[in-house]
Amino acid sequence: MTGLSPNISVLKSRKVGVIGSGSWATAIAKILLENLPAIHWFIRSDETIELFRQYKNNPGYLRGVEFDTDRIHFTSDINQVAAACDILVIVIPAAFLRDTLAQLTVDISDKFVVSGIKGLVPGENIVVGEFLHQAYHLPYESVGVLAGPCHAEEVALEKLSYLTVACGNEDRGREFASLLQCSYIKANTIDDIWGTEYSSVLKNIIAIAAGICHGLMYGDNFQAVLISNAIQEIKRFVDTVHPITRDIKSSVYLGDLLVTGYSQFSRNRTFGNMIGKGYSVRTAQLEMHMVAEGYYSVKIIREINEKYKVDMPICEAVYQILYNGRSPRKEILKLTEKLT
User: Fold this and answer.
1) Which of 203, 235, 249, 277 is catalytic?
2) pLDDT tens, residue by residue, 292-314
3) Is residue 2 domain-resident?
4) Final residue before a domain boundary, out of 148, 166, 191
5) Is residue 1 assigned to a domain?
């Protein structure tokens, strides 16, 4: 990881656009406005934009965060943001990525595009960075990945949090990281785009497993075993799919897993907890009103792993419960025999 040397004049000249309106998009917008005089923000719903302007907060997410809306250029036209900005931060559920970007008519191949998405592209079975490279001709050096460990709710409360920007171009990664640096955010950079994306995807699946176990009344002792086995499972997978030298114990991998597996703010853990308590998948999804990325990701990871044959007992247990309707109690009991 590298340190940062923010250049204030460079920071203030950047035109940055946020694409998405959920809690993480809202948190990122809050962070960016600590350093930028203004941002552009694509929100699909004109009604949401009008309510945002009226009440000075996002009506759907993190309503405790008040914005100076005079510093935000809102639009429901994604092409306006793409044309106006040289940096785009995409923060929408992976399941909706293709449909949202299908509206683009502006060429974004010369932009720096940062993915704040913690999921895989359905149908393509690839990470977001690879999708952007293939579909929009973005060089990998122009793709960044934003990862935790960080929850939007704690950003809203301005609790000290750490972010990591993964990018193959060190200068671009450092520059974007310095846009995030403020009194409550510390930002680092690494060059492991694939490992960062896959790890972000896998930790959501593990969080569902942790939630299921909590719903089944497994205690902290077992959760510790689950998570310690999970980081080994993540390492096996990312080292097989993209074998480079990486320290799986660093915060972007292990830290992100821990906060997602244990935190009360983790939507994937919450979703898993409901499944463990007996909710059906559909009922849990309807009651949450938010997308648990791990639900979609576990199916895609399993399909990808048909090629690599990595031993992934935790992910397999989650898949069997969510997609094959297996008993959570019986599947987790079988899993306990495979963990050490």
Assistant:
1) 203
2) 999 999 999 999 999 999 999 99
3) no
4) 191
5) no
Same domain, 317 and 172: no
Please say if 309 is a catalytic residue. Answer: no
Tell me if the pTM is above 0.85: yes
Quick one: 150 and 238 in the same domain? Answer: no
Among 166, 191, 216, the domain boundary falls at 191
State the residue for tokens 């897993």.
Answer: 257
143 plus 220 within the same structural domain: no
Rounded Cα–Cα distance for residues 217 and 215 (Å): 5
What is the distance between the alpha carbons of residues 191 and 179, in angstroms, rounded to a whole number?
A: 18
Secondary structure class of 88 (helix, strand, coil): strand
**Which range marks the domain in which residue 75 is found?**
8-191
| Residue 291: band (very low, low, confident or very high) from pLDDT cuts 50, 70, 90 | confident
22 in a structural domain: yes
- Note whether 108 and 165 are same-domain residues: yes
> Rounded distance, CA 296 to CA 281, Å?
12
Amino acid at 336: T
Mean pLDDT of 30-50: 97
pLDDT recorded at residue 12: 73
Give how many domains the chain has, as a whole number: 2
* pLDDT > 80? residue 104: yes
AA identity, residue 133: H
Q: Where are the alpha helices (DSSP H) in the chain?
A: 8-13, 23-32, 46-55, 78-84, 97-101, 128-136, 152-156, 170-180, 193-215, 220-241, 256-262, 267-276, 281-288, 293-308, 313-323, 328-336
> How would you classify residue 137: left for phi > 0, otherwise alpha for psi between -120 and 50, otherwise beta?
left
Note whether 184 and 287 are same-domain residues: no
